Amino acid sequence: MLRRFLPFLVLVFNQFPGFAQSGYNLVGDARAVPNSDCYQLTNSRTWQLGAVWYAEPLRLAESFELEMTLNFGADGTGADGIVLVMQTVGNRAIGKAGGGIGFEGFLPSLGIELDTYRNLAFSDPDIDHIALVRNGASNHSDNANRAFASPVQMSTKVKNVKDGTNHRMLVKWNAAARQLDVFFDCDLRISQKIDLVQDVFGGVSEVFWGFTAATGGSTNTHTVCLNRNIVARDTFRVCQGERLTLVARESINETYQWNPVQDLENPTSRTPSLRADRDRFFTVSYRDKCFALRRDSVYVRVQTPPKLRLGGDRQVCEDKPIELVPTLTPAFGQTSYRWSTGDTTQRLKPLQSGRYALKVKAGVCQLSDSVQVTIHPLPTLETIPELECLRDQPLTLDARASGPGLRYQWLPGGSTSPSLIASTAGRYDVRIQTDFGCAANRSITVRDDCPPQVFIPDAFSPNGDGLNDQWEWKNTDELDSRLTVYDRWGEVLFSTENSQQRWDGTYQGLPCPTADYVFRLDFRLRRKPDGEWFVKRGRVTLFR
Fold first, then answer.
1. What's the topology of domain 19-228?
2. Which of 200, 226, 233 is nearest to 26 (CA)?
3. Which of 116, 287, 315, 528 could bridge to 81 as Cys pair (CB 3.0-4.6 Å)?
4. Taking the model in full, what pTM does it have?
5. Tens-digit pLDDT string for the chain (544 aa)
6. Which residues contact 375 (CB under 8 A, 6 or more apart)?
7. C-alpha to C-alpha distances, 384 to 15, 356, 378, 397, 538, nearest whole angstrom
8. Superfamily for the 234-303 domain
9. Fold equal for 380-447 and 454-542
10. Whether 522 contacts 541, CB under 8 Å
11. Parallel, antiparallel or unpaired: strands 243-248 and 273-275
């Protein structure tokens, strides 16, 4: 059975990991020790306060082991100690210096207190002691701590751990049995039944964890060295087909034996690898740093990956919205999405052509798919009047569009030419399609009752030089017209109903002087003898 063995194993993917101080956050006076996995939480100065927090939370619903090396400095009368803390405040938190050992004030929390200074106000024993404390309270008489065993001597080998040497600590959590065991210098010092999730953290199963240390009026250098594979669990969930590396704890003589040996590459190494294709149970035998013969176990639970599909490549016209909707078969609950655009939504609406890739995390499986999206443009329509007037001649209507491989369809008439001859009034529609089928429509209204257009100059010079010697007006239609020219006193100087007759700037055969003259032009379409008369008034300047 899985629970017959103590879990004491880590599993990593693809290669042996080296955190090398990259997986932790340092707070306060804490400093990394170069070229090591060690952190100096305080130096030997008064009122120092430092913490180091693991970047990822600890999952209390799973069994685990934590192994580390602690150094409490070399001042035999120094202070104050180190606390291994589990808390929900965050991985940048810091408490108080002195007797609080950097732990005071965290609520809710659990601390494994390694106290090297006797504070009578906290009911400390007169020895370097180890104890369980909670909710940031280091006082062993506090109500929060009475459910725990009394503080005990930290090490059975030495009474004073402020000896400048390294001390090994091992923390074991059995989630099923709700059992917390703490070993110091290879001896069991704390064994406590406790429901961490419910009784300490109020139902929260993932907590931040790390180490705090502090000095007060008395000082010491406090250092913690965190093994690279510090969090060990007995169950690991991996995606089917991935290559895994099993990593055992360090052996005192570097001798390991894995079982079963099938499918393991080099089953006598610390780090054999395998390709996970089904659920597997492994054990490894070795002698730990306390020379004890250990047999650790791990259960590799393999997740069958769902199939991710984005569908085939898409081609659409730019006026048709498109949405990429991934499907997982079978459906999977815990998923996260990341598109090549940076979007993290499940669905994506592309706005331009290109290849769109999607990565999905379904449980522990990483899935990917991509699709090419081509968005074709519509025909480009030039600006033309939407209203045209039918004059005396048939009117040519031009679709005026550009694009690849255009096709036209006019209604009425069914013409497939880019232009159409309109001889009657009405509405003319044309549908224009590219070679892909992207279409644009335009409509042109043709009227045969548009007001006629006349163009009347505002000056002329009847001086016999052959330029502008007559005042003549022009029009775009055959018109019936009446033109009258007046002087400034209102006397009629020229009048005609012949649209071709021009004024030569004379009155009764005599040249009129240079001046401004008033005119009135009445006109209507000749093809509409019962149509509306239009009037245009203005001034014309005669120059001599």
1. Jelly Rolls (2.60.120)
2. 226
3. 116
4. 0.57
5. 333 333 333 333 332 233 334 578 899 999 999 988 899 999 999 999 999 998 888 999 988 888 899 999 999 999 999 999 999 988 888 888 888 899 888 999 999 999 999 988 888 999 999 999 998 888 888 777 777 878 999 999 999 999 999 999 999 999 999 999 999 999 999 999 999 999 999 999 999 999 999 999 999 999 999 865 565 566 778 899 999 888 888 888 999 999 999 889 999 999 999 998 999 999 999 998 888 898 888 888 999 999 999 999 999 999 999 999 999 999 988 899 999 999 999 999 999 999 999 999 999 999 999 999 999 999 999 988 888 888 767 889 999 999 999 999 999 988 999 999 998 899 999 999 999 999 999 999 998 878 788 899 999 999 888 899 999 988 877 889 999 999 999 999 999 999 889 999 999 999 999 999 999 999 988 888 888 899 999 999 999 8
6. 316, 317, 318, 322, 350, 351, 352, 353
7. 68, 38, 17, 10, 31
8. Immunoglobulins (2.60.40.10)
9. yes
10. no
11. antiparallel
Residue pair 93/204 in contact (Cβ under 8 Å)? The answer is: no
Q: What are phi and psi of 335, to 5 degrees?
A: -135, 150
131 with 150: CB under 8 angstroms? yes
Reply yes or no on domain 380-447 having CATH 2.60.40.10: yes
Number of Cβ atoms within 10 Å of the Cβ of 479: 17
Cross-strand bridge partners of residue 523: 481, 534
Domain coordinates in residue numbering, the chain:
19-228, 234-303, 307-376, 380-447, 454-542
Distance CA 22, CA 35 (A): 12
Rounded CA separation 56/408 (Å): 64
Instruction: Let me know: does 224 contact 53? Beta carbons within 8 Å.
Output: no
Q: What is the fold of 307-376?
A: Immunoglobulin-like (2.60.40)
Cα angle for residues 420, 422, 427 (degrees, 5° grid): 95
Query: What is the token pair recorded at 432?
Result: 């224009």
Q: Give the β-pairing of 510-511 and 24-28.
A: unpaired
**Amino acid (one-letter) located at 416:** T
